[in-house]
Amino acid sequence: MFKKYVLNIMTLFLVAAAMGQSNVPYSTLIKNIGTEGVYVHYNSNLLFTGEYLHFKLYALSNKNQSLSQASKIAYLELLDQEGERKMIQKVELMDGMGQGDIFVPTNLNSGYYTLVAYTTHMKNWPNKIFYTDDVVVLNPYTNDQAVFWESEETDSLVNVSETLNKNIKESGNKDLELTLDKSQYGKREKVQLTVEAKSRIYGTYSVSVRKRSEEFGYGNRTSPEDYLRKYSEVDLNQAENNYLPELRGEIVSGSLSSDSGLETADKLVVFTLPGEEYEFRMVPTDSDGKFMFSLDSDNLDSESIFQVWGDNRNQYSINIDNIPQLNLRRNLSKNFVLKRGMKEFIEERSTHNQIENAYFHSKPDTVKLNNDFIPIYGNNFMEYKLDEYTRFPTFKETLVEIVDNAWIASDGDEQKIFVRDFEATNMDVGYNPLVIVDGIVLQDHGDLINYSVKNIETITLARNQYVVGGQIFQGVFDVNTFDADFADNYQKIYLNKIQLLRPKPQKKYFKQKYSDENFGTVPDFRHQLLWEPNFNIEETTTTLEFYTSDVDGEFEIEVEGFTSQMQPIKVVKHFKVQ
């Protein structure tokens, strides 16, 4: 009897419930999870094009009074005054927190924008639950700044450059205190910050150190206390119950269509993220030709390949659902006015940005990599590194001379690859293997049989029987090329190459360091001296060090976040650089 290893591709219980495979009412499941909120700590609400908006997300659970462990994906968007989406990022949440950055492109117009953050689960309630805040973007490379000229229409709005900025002061917290070793520093000097936790508020917070200006700013941003107050007012019973929470990772959904009028129900859709650490799914369509699966993968590539499995695959198209527009439009609550006295400041800051961007490669951020890739067949396989054997000119000869328990035979009019099961004693194995090349599932085995074997680095053979999406495969025949570029040149009518919106890998942000002996020759015009999204407070006293730049003026330290009991924390401290 064959031993079968079943790959559980769609294990998300809520997805099953939504597709009618559970007797538990969906509204009950939603309410059992409870409401969810997202707070954003970000570095500045007045940004120049060519700068980065750094952010840290905190997902909140009102039911548990803690950081939310429900959603694994959040969304951050930048909307213009008409509510039109200008930028969107998908953010991976781990232990209720996520991080990232947005580069403000130089083709973005000067104007007022809205920063919005939410999870899909939050869409089950009115959008007042979303995190929203006003942001000003100034494009210094264009002459069109009319939106910021003073006019009669702005008279009723707060002039932040004259009013709000003068009220930005240091703020403390009874549970957290910031202490500096000095109140004034020189250029390129080390700053030592001591953070004292006066009560047990241990956890992970975010820290921003940035130049501030009373004359050039956009007032206060939404605070953790402000957002928590708004979020706590949301009524659980107002849930609209239309959206699946992304409990196990990203939810990818779409539908089949056929110009030939072929049936789209009960078809198998194959999804892959090609590459060395590929990701693979095979999911059925429902009665309406729709499909859905959960994607929890360390492979964050956006280039995906979809195909329909089986006959007539050339006659289908695959359409992936886009993230719906929010239709969120806010009334402007405060005004930013450009004045002649700001010209020098704008020119200086834009010059500093250009210099910093020019030397970006000298101050690189690093990406946190995860090397825990496990192929779909686990650890039960035989790998053949072809360079360890005598090379043969053709793929067929390579299988005969090097690879045991695999062969090529005719199957009707086609040449097929076969893999022998552990218990088989003859060539009649009954099922085809799952053939994969650089992460692409091949339905036409001849494309590999006729492929140049000199490009192949390894052939991996898994001989057990596998069930994927209800399809039985006798073994897995997995091929890796030297450059992992098979997908780049593989063209088939039925292959749908689709760019997906994916989370970006987490970064470890560059921290400038200087020694007393060597200040270096690279210019340093950082206005953002430090962005640390994962500042761990695990003891009563924690220290943090960073260096000033060649920019003088007043700087602001912000420490923000939430305790494990969802207590909001925000502490602000100032210092000067001369």
Task: Describe the fold and architecture.
There is one protein chain. With 578 residues, this protein is mainly β. The protein folds into two domains: 4-13 and 259-315 and 371-499, no CATH class; 34-240 and 325-369 and 508-577, Immunoglobulin-like (Sandwich). It is built from seven helices and 36 strands. The strands form ten sheets. Strands 1, 24, 27, 28, 29 and 30 form a six-stranded mixed sheet that branches. A five-stranded mixed sheet has the order 3-10-9-6-7, with no helix packed on it. Strand 35 (553-562) and strand 36 form a beta hairpin. It is elongated, with a radius of gyration of 28 Å. 35% of the residues are buried. Mean pLDDT is 88; it is low at 1-23 and 160-167.
Total helical elements: 7
According to CATH, the homologous superfamily of the largest domain is: Macroglobulin (MG2) domain
**Poorly predicted tracts of residues:** 1-23, 160-167
The average pLDDT is: 88
Structural class designation: mainly beta
Fraction of helical residues: under 10%
Given the C-alpha coordinates, what overall shape results? elongated
CATH architecture of the largest domain: Sandwich
What is the chains' assembly state? single chain
Sketch the major β-sheet: 6 strands, mixed
Residue fraction in strands: 35-45%
CATH fold-level assignment of the largest domain:
Immunoglobulin-like
CATH class of the largest domain: Mainly Beta
Distance between the termini: 80 Å
